[in-house]
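We read letters as residues; the integers encode the fold. Take this protein.
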Amino acid sequence: MAPTLARVAGRDRLRLNPRHMASEDFAYVAEQAPDLFFWIGVTPPGAEMARGVEPFADLPGG
């Protein structure tokens, strides 16, 4: 999926983050059917993505 997103959106607009543990039940679905799980997020250039629920996260729209 990453090569397709890079081609469509532009490589400079794609950011891969390190893997981390999430608390989704998606793994149970993936045992039964082919899977792909990813987040689409929007952050200002150079800003870190928010992790989980952060009270001071820089969210668009205030």
Summary: The chain has a mean pLDDT of 75.
